[in-house]
Specification:
The structure holds 2 protein chains of 2 kinds. By secondary structure, chain A is mainly α. Chain A is built from 18 helices and 2 strands. Among the domains of chain B are: about 230 residues, no CATH class; about 180 residues, no CATH class. Helices cover about 50% and strands about 10% of the residues of chain B. Chain B is built from 41 helices and 24 strands. Classes of the chains: A mainly alpha, B alpha/beta. Chains A and B meet through helix 3, helix 6, helix 12, helix 13 and helix 14 of A and helix 12, helix 13, helix 26, helix 27 and helix 28 of B.
Chain lengths: ~450, ~1050
């Protein structure tokens, strides 16, 4: 039975990788496949993956297994540094629903995009990024080690940023893509540090070893409080960056630059939940750390309130949906912090489907509103909650401006993060230049930029 | 609502060619297609050589034969430059091109061998004559060649290798007498090298051509030019957010507080206070607002103050304000529209909003500029500029901004163009060498007068002429009217008559109907069928105008349920209302905090409709329809077209389905409900007169049209233009009801218009996207008419399938061999597909508008590119009253459509709205590209991708005299025609003589060919073809 399972698991992972390889390589040698073939290839492989996952699920239910591990051994091993890059994939109660959802959503959006982007100049580029995204997502969801998770996490980030800049002939998609990429890098840096620390403290990156080989969500970690606190904090930052929690929420509406289907699947539904998934996967490890859970809850609550308020004042459909997504992710993080892990899982999946459908339908908004107006027989009420109307006028204006300006999150990051960062490195540059001149002996140190 | 409209409407007082150049200067938009594109069209035969020759000869007129140099006339010179691509490139690329390609070793590919050998021979002869000079030249040449090689290779090869190479080369050249043994290749290279040098010499005699300076219109241009800081970026981002809120038509759940106040006040209130974490430049903004408030300035005073502090004088003020407003043209236009022309929207703007907007923009500009200057001062370690008047001159001085005058063409560039022209015309270097300075000057002038814009203009004229000739030839090849008129006399029975809109999309539908049954007659009239009205259907909440935008309807028409159905309809309406409110709550709730959590938790349910809709759109829509039947308003309705007293009107609408509507019926609607019998008779008389319809079949179908599609913010652009972007079904229905009314017929009889008792009218609606046709009020047909109707309906059904098949050939996602029934299914699925970016192609490829009797175009395959307006010149009065009123409607409407397509095609990024893939609906008003951008107007790339941009050609069956008279009396039409925004030709009513309008008069048109393709039927014509098709005569008639 286990060989059948391994075989199916290989299909689940192999098919998308094969798609990516075929599309990527044929693009690389300047022989892009025709649109029809790209479509068939993508559909076939997604369908295969979906069927294989269902097969695994069926066998596991049948044999009453709650976990299946696919170990591909070490990718890199550095003996004396005690480091190994271990590729290991887990099929369990958490990852299988996520993978099923991924295949369904990606399959649907793929066939949507095939029609939507037909004969567009970037059709091929889209599908290359799209399959890269799928591979990344599967790696991230199925990862059994923190290294594997990081690999998937990076692929998702890269393909997302490339798709935001899909219309690269205009400036704003490229600028916004770069900005999102920048925030992803902050999240990546935090993640990487967390991974290294974990290796440092536990000598391994396998989730299962950390929780004594118990299937999710059982088991607890044996990290000491300080380690769990620092790793937890870093992972929280990583999740916040990737999932657009406060203070990183500003990137999500900016991500709506790409074609509608990519906005739907990436930012509305899947990659926005990646941070929440990370927290969910590692939740057993931090279950004992009250500080982390309180922080997590606070961050989630803050995000939910902030995003709910901001979403209300948005006047364009895609930004409104983006902030609504952030709001729900905030609530999901709260649920994780409170320990309602299954609820969070259901919430993630439901939210992903709902938001995808809403984003796909976004261009039909005018018609929907007309239909509703006709059904109701008058103009639509905009549903402004009563508590806003009760506010004093100047308070109302203050809060309105706060929401309209999206809480100045972007400017806050610019001022609190970017500016000191740039200043610091400018200073380094000056020092370095001074030293160079001094070494050369050509002139005495000057305090002036070259 | 979306209505097609000339994009450069504001420039209509200028001739077309000047206006497009104005647009180029003002908006940076392309005036024509690219030269490469025309060149491709030339290569594939879409532009013929003769077209270019004729266009050029006509354009140059008497200047054509003037000699320029070496016996070449101006005509020959320009022709060579038009027929062959002239390569021009930036200096660096050119240098690379000359060094790395065979440009100086071989003649251009398109130089004929005889010209090439003639030039070489001429050089050879010259050399023989001047052998001394030859020696000298050879030396010079080799030296230069060596230098060139050395320069090229030093970087890549060792010194040793270069030396060796050079030695070898020099020896090789020196050892023999060049004239005796040189190979043809060497001769060729020498000739070309020499030619190029002569060209450089000639070009340097004349010098460089300088560009006009890049205009500095605003302070922003200076800062951008000197320090690369674009002050507009943050201003635009801020402004878009604010304007989105200020103009929101009800999307946001939390609207701008007190948004009924003037924009300027709202802005001051919102941004007057500082806020934590706001970016630095907004602090400057709140300072500026505080100053304004302290001096209690109104918006106009604030504008004046801003202009003063920006150092603007009287001079250049207009230009400054123009370009300030044009930094976000879409939003600016929308504010103006909302202020002046939008009383029907839920939230129009107050008077003076545009002025407020300018004041706001200037404040933001100033804040951004001040902050940028502070930034620069900090960066360059110098004291910040003291505030006060900051004129552009001073700013430029402080920032050390020097306007660079770009060199438009360097000597090398001009020389290279000259070099190519010389090859094409077979000028030999020895001849050129002998030119005098004045000759050089005139040659270079001549070449620069035929620059790329000029070439594009001429190529465009040729492009238009080619199609125009095809169209006119095809019309001229039709049987002459005297012979053709015979079958329409009483002898031949008509099975039924169909009246459709003039729309180009109905051309195929009419043609196919006539093809299936040759005894069918079709007519075309503007799709509101002379019934201008405000209409409200039984399931609609609001009245919508159904008539061209230039007409303001005075009558209101309601649709109500039939008496027996009213109870059912009331229940359905109630159910719709409950469901509507529930789904609206769901819609809003899913975006909020608590309700959003609930909906998200159940969100997996959304996967079902999503998967179904994306994977099987047609099936899903069928199922939805089945379910929706429970609440869908039943077909059993009535139109209240008859004038009734206000009291009765309330009774009628209240007893009907209208009771659930907002209680206050519009006062105006109450007073003007329906038409009087007299008005109805007038409308019927008018339409029948326009059509020239005087011999009636037993059944007359009248079909309005519209289009439905999903996920399409531009949906209403696909509807009937003559109904102001609405769907024309109710107009057709109303017209049929009027024409069937015996009292109306009685009135008409007294006026001499006899509609036989046996004739009955049936109104219908043609959906041009799904190709469905639905009929109204057929339950009221007399039983004796049932057979007639059923026969007609089965013909219509066949025509729908074939029409769908003809349309499908254009869709790349439909395979080419689609059979008609499959094609119908395909187009039905397109309309229901959320993913479909091209539900149909709308007016794309429109090119002609024919005004005249159908028999003049009947049996002609026009590839859905022609508007067809029915008009019978033989029944028009001496003053051409009928033609006048037809042209008054048709020329502006069709010109608007054609020109909007023209501009959106030639520059989709500026005149059009770009790709629709990233479109984002904002404020329920318009679309932005991606996260935040200017509002995009015009047509999307997906709408125009198959369009051939041409000015529309009107062919009017009338005499030139009559048309000129009409133009003289109608300045609006005259402006379009005499400024060449449209092309105009007349077709004589009694012969096939065609005359073409040019420069205020008409000139005879001589058909270029009499042969026209003859094919069996439309299917044979378009079968397995995707591209544009030429005219053809359909064999079976």
């Amino acid at each position: 039975m286990s060989s059948v399972l391994n075989c199916l698991a290989a299909i689940v992972l192999g098919c998308p990788i094969l798609t990516l390889l075929i599309l990527g390589l044929s693009g690389l040698i300047q022989r892009p496949l025709p649109e029809r073939l790209v479509d068939r290839l993508t559909k076939f492989h997604v369908a295969m993956g979906l069927v294989a996952t269902l097969g695994i699920l069926g066998i596991m239910i049948g044999t009453n297994h709650s976990m299946e591990v696919l170990d591909l051994g070490n990718f890199v091993e550095i003996g004396q540094e005690h480091f190994h890059f271990h590729l290991e994939f887990i099929f369990d109660r958490l990852s299988i629903p996520m993978v099923l959802m991924t295949f369904v959503l990606v399959g649907v959006i793929g066939s949507f995009a095939n029609i939507y982007l037909q004969s567009d100049a970037g059709y091929y580029r889209f599908f290359v990024c799209f399959s890269m995204f799928l591979v990344g997502l599967l790696f991230a969801f199925l990862a059994g080690t923190i290294e594997t998770l990081f690999l998937g996490w990076e692929l998702v980030g890269l393909s997302s940023a490339l798709l935001i800049a899909y219309f690269h002939e205009r400036t704003s998609p490229v600028e916004n893509g770069l900005r999102v990429w920048g925030i992803y890098r902050v999240a990546d840096a935090a993640f990487l540090m967390a991974a290294l620390m974990m290796h440092h403290w536990t000598d391994q990156g396998e989730f299962l070893r950390m929780v004594n080989d118990q299937p999710w969500p059982q088991g607890t970690s044996h990290l000491d409080p300080l380690a769990s606190l620092s790793v937890g904090l870093l992972l929280l930052i990583a999740a916040a960056g990737k999932s657009g929690l406060v203070p990183f929420s500003g990137w999500l509406p900016r991500a709506m630059e790409g074609p509608t289907p990519s906005s739907a699947v990436f930012y509305g539904a899947l990659s926005i939940h990646l941070g929440a998934y990370l927290l969910l996967r590692l939740a057993p490890i931090f279950a004992d750390s009250l500080v982390i859970r309180v922080l997590m809850f606070g961050l989630g609550a803050l995000t939910a309130i902030y995003a709910a308020m901001t979403a209300r004042v948005q006047t364009d459909i895609k930004s409104a949906l983006a902030f609504s997504s952030v709001c729900q992710v905030g609530i999901i993080v709260m649920e994780i912090a409170l320990g309602f892990w299954y609820l969070a899982l259901v919430h993630i999946i439901g939210h992903a489907f709902l938001r995808s459908l809403q984003l796909l339908r976004a261009p039909t908004l005018l018609r929907d509103y007309r239909t509703l107006e006709n059904a109701i027989g008058g103009r639509l009420a905009n549903g402004q909650p009563a508590w806003i109307a009760r506010m004093a006028n100047h308070r109302q204006i203050q809060w309105y401006r706060f929401a309209l300006e999206r809480g100045y999150m972007d400017s806050m990051i610019d001022q609190a993060l970017l500016k000191p960062f740039r200043k610091l490195f400018k200073a380094f540059e000056r020092v370095e230049n001074d030293w160079l001149r001094w070494f050369e002996g050509t002139s005495r140190p000057r305090r002036q930029d070259p | 609502m979306f209505v097609h409209h000339n994009t450069l409407h504001a420039f209509e007082h200028l001739p077309f060619e000047l206006a497009v150049i104005e647009g180029w200067k003002k908006y940076g938009a392309e005036p024509y297609l690219s030269e490469d594109r025309y060149r491709q069209e030339f290569l594939r035969g879409r532009i013929a050589r003769e077209d270019i020759e004729q266009v050029l000869a006509k354009d140059l007129d008497h200047r054509a034969e003037e000699p320029i140099v070496l016996g070449t006339t101006r005509y020959e010179l320009r022709l060579a430059m038009l027929l062959h691509p002239i390569r021009n490139a930036p200096e660096e690329e050119l240098r690379w091109f000359i060094a790395e390609t065979k440009a100086l070793r071989e003649f251009r590919d398109d130089v004929p061998p005889n010209v090439e050998s003639k030039v070489i021979r001429s050089v050879q002869e010259w050399m023989e004559r001047n052998s001394k000079v030859t020696q000298q030249f050879t030396q010079q040449f080799t030296q230069q060649f060596t230098r060139q090689f050395t320069r090229q290779f030093t970087q890549h090869f060792t010194q040793h290798f270069t030396q060796h190479f050079t030695q070898h080369f020099t020896q090789g050249s020196k050892s023999e007498d060049p004239t005796a043994v040189s190979s043809p290749e060497q001769w060729r290279a020498w000739t070309l090298e020499w030619l190029h040098r002569v060209c450089i010499k000639g070009a340097s005699l004349v010098g460089e051509v300088l560009n006009d300076t890049i205009p500095v219109r605003r302070h922003r241009d200076i800062v951008l030019g000197s320090h690369g800081i674009d002050c507009d970026v943050r201003v635009n981002e801020q402004l878009i957010r604010f304007l989105g809120s200020a103009t929101d038509q009800g999307f946001a759940q939390w609207g701008l507080p007190d948004r009924d106040r003037p924009l300027f006040e709202l802005f001051q209130e919102l941004y007057g206070v500082r806020s934590i974490f706001q970016p630095g430049w907004l602090k400057e903004l709140s300072d500026l607002i505080a100053q304004d408030r302290a001096s209690d300035r109104s918006s106009i005073e604030s504008i004046v103050h801003s202009l003063e502090s920006l150092g603007l004088r009287e001079y250049g003020l207009d230009d400054f304000i123009d370009s300030t407003l044009l930094s976000l043209p879409g939003w600016t236009g929308m504010i103006w529209q909302l202020e002046t022309n939008a009383e029907w929207t839920p939230r129009p703007l107050r008077d003076g909003s545009l002025q407020d907007y300018l004041a706001i923009r200037l404040l933001l500009d100033r804040a951004s500029l001040r902050s940028a200057l502070g930034q620069i001062a900090e960066l360059e370690d110098r004291p910040s500029l003291e505030q006060g008047s900051l004129s552009m001159e001073r700013l430029a001085q402080v920032l050390a901004f020097h306007q660079r005058r770009n060199v438009r063409q360097t000597v090398d560039q001009r020389a290279f163009i000259l070099f190519q022209v010389a090859q094409l015309l077979g000028w030999s270097p020895n001849e050129l060498e002998a030119l005098s300075a004045t000759e050089w000057q005139s040659l270079m002038d001549e070449i620069s007068h035929c620059g790329t814009m000029e070439r594009r203009r001429l190529l465009h004229l040729a492009y238009e002429q080619h199609y125009r000739n095809e169209a006119l030839d095809a019309i001229a090849s039709q049987p002459a009217p005297v012979a053709a008129a015979v079958p329409t006399t009483a002898s031949r029975p008509i099975s039924f008559q169909v009246i459709t809109c003039i729309d180009d999309r109905e051309e195929s539908f009419r043609r196919i109907l006539e093809e299936i049954d040759p005894a069918v007659e079709t007519f075309g009239a503007a799709g509101f069928f002379s019934v201008p009205m405000y209409f409200r259907s039984s399931s609609d909440a609001h009245y919508i105008p159904l008539c061209p935008v230039v007409i303001k309807p005075k009558h209101f028409v309601d649709e109500i349920g039939q008496l027996s159905q009213q109870e059912l309809q009331r229940r359905q309406a109630e159910a719709r209302r409950v469901l509507g409110q529930a789904s609206h709550r769901l819609h809003m709730g899913s975006r909020s905090l608590a309700a959003g959590t609930l909906t998200s938790l159940l969100g997996s349910l959304a996967s079902l409709p999503m998967v179904a809709r994306v994977l099987a759109p047609r099936l899903t829509s069928r199922i939805r329809e089945l379910v929706a039947r429970v609440v869908k308003p039943s077909q059993a309705t009535l139109l209240l077209i008859e004038r009734i007293t206000p009291e009765a009107s309330i009774d009628a609408t209240a007893s009907g389905a209208a009771h659930y509507r907002e209680a206050k019926l519009d006062q105006e609607a109450m007073l003007n409900q329906g038409f009087t019998l007299e008005e109805m008779a007038n409308m019927v008389e008018r339409l029948l007169g326009d059509l020239g319809l005087h011999r009636f079949a037993r059944l007359v179908l009248i079909l309005g049209h519209g289009s439905s599609s999903l996920n399409n913010p531009h949906e209403s652009a696909y509807n009937c233009g003559a109904c102001g972007g609405g769907r024309g079904g109710p107009n057709a229905r109303a017209f049929a009801m009027m024409a069937n009314d015996y009292r109306v017929r009685k009135i008409l009889q007294t006026r001499g218009l006899e509609i036989p008792e046996s004739t009955c009218f049936v109104g219908g609606y043609h959906n041009t996207c799904t190709d469905s046709v639905e009929f109204f009020d057929i339950d009221r047909l007399a039983p004796s008419r049932h057979m007639d109707f059923l026969q007609a309906q089965s013909l219509i059904d066949q025509a729908r399938e074939r029409n769908a098949s003809e349309r499908s050939r254009r869709f790349t996602s439909a395979s080419l061999g689609l059979k008609p029934p499959e094609a119908l299914k395909h187009v039905e699925a397109r309309a229901e597909d959320l993913a479909q970016a091209r539900p149909e192609y709308n007016h794309a490829s429109n090119a002609v508008c024919f005004v005249g009797r159908r028999l003049r175009t009947r049996g002609l395959f026009m590839d859905r590119r022609s508007f067809l307006t029915s008009y019978d010149p033989t029944r028009d009065g001496p003053g051409s009253e009928i033609l006048t009123r037809i042209l008054q409607a048709v020329i502006p409407v069709c010109a608007g459509i054609s020109l909007e397509y023209y501009f959106s095609t030639v520059d989709n990024a500026v005149y059009g709205c770009g790709s629709k893939l990233p479109h984002n609906i904002t404020s329920l008003l318009g679309v932005m590209e991606g996260a935040a951008s200017d509002l995009r107007t015009g047509l999307s790339q997906q709408m125009v991708e198959i369009h051939e941009p041409m000015r529309i050609l009107f062919v009017i069956e009338s005499t030139p005299r009559a048309v000129l008279e009409i133009l003289a009396k109608n300045p609006v039409l005259d402006r379009l025609v005499s400024n060449r925004w449209v092309q105009l030709a007349t077709l004589a009513p009694d012969s096939n003589r065609i005359e073409l309008y040019q420069d205020g008069g008409f000139a005879d048109y001589q058909p270029t060919s009499s042969a026209i393709r003859v094919v069996a039927d439309s299917y044979a014509c378009y079968h397995h073809r995707r591209d544009h098709l030429s005219f053809a005569r359909l064999g079976v008639q």
